[in-house]
């Protein structure tokens, strides 16, 4: 009887320690250089529908259902999706645009788990008609779900998807 009590107390203490030490914030981003000038790259990027051409998640579920609300490329535009287990269900809303600098969006995921993140796409003129594109997202993971990040490397897993997407973006923009 006392042994079971001590085991339960030990498990509770272990869970509390894991919640305390687990990361509570995350950020993943990748970048690539595209041989096109900033205005051309930015105009393509700010249209969320263009992500269908280079997004790694669209490739994971080419048959996902999508709906759009508002004017693409403007603050308030919302892209909703409902896909397979690889892409889940969620929406992306443009929150802020700084012309030829950055596009900020809110990602709201509903399935497979509910969460919210801040996405960003930034462009930098690096000279000679070349543009550095930085694509990423960040967010908070509240306890107890933050324990998940002790066992899942978000940067490695999602970073690989970002690299794939940016490579596709580069190919599209440089070959058009």
Topology at a glance:
Layout: H1 2-21, E1 25-34, H2 38-45, H3 51-54, H4 56-60, E2 65-69, E3 78-82, E4 89-98, E5 102-111, E6 115-127, E7 130-140, H5 154-174
Antiparallel strand pairs: 1-7, 2-3, 3-4, 4-5, 5-6, 6-7
Overall outline: elongated
Largest sheet: 7 strands, antiparallel
Structural class: alpha+beta
SS strand fraction? 35-45%
What kind of oligomer do you see? single chain
Unreliable stretches, pLDDT < 50, 5 or more residues? none
Question: Which strand order spans the largest sheet, edge to edge or round the barrel?
Answer: 1-7-6-5-4-3-2
Specify Rg, calculated over alpha carbons. Answer: 20 Å
Distance between the termini: 73 Å
Give the beta-strand count.
Answer: 7
Mean pLDDT: 88
Assign a percent range to the helix content.
Answer: 25-40%
Could you state the order of secondary-structure elements as H and E? Answer: HEHHHEEEEEEH
Number of helices, counting only DSSP H or I runs of 4 residues or more: 5
């Amino acid at each position: 009887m006392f042994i079971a009590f001590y085991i339960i107390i030990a498990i509770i203490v272990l869970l509390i320690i894991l919640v305390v030490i687990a990361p509570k914030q995350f950020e993943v981003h990748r970048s690539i250089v595209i041989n096109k000038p900033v205005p051309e790259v930015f105009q393509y990027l700010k249209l969320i529908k263009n992500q269908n051409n280079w997004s790694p998640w669209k490739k994971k579920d080419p048959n996902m259902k999508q709906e759009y609300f508002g004017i693409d490329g403007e603050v308030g535009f919302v892209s909703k999706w409902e896909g397979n287990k690889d892409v889940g269900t969620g929406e992306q809303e443009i929150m802020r645009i700084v012309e030829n600098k950055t596009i900020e969006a809110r990602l709201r995921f509903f399935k497979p788990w509910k969460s919210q993140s801040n996405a960003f796409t930034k462009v930098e003129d690096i000279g000679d008609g070349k543009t550095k594109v930085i694509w990423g997202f960040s967010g908070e993971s509240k306890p107890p779900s933050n324990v998940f990040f002790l066992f899942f490397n978000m940067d490695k897993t999602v970073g690989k998807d970002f690299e794939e997407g940016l490579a596709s973006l580069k190919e599209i923009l440089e070959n058009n």
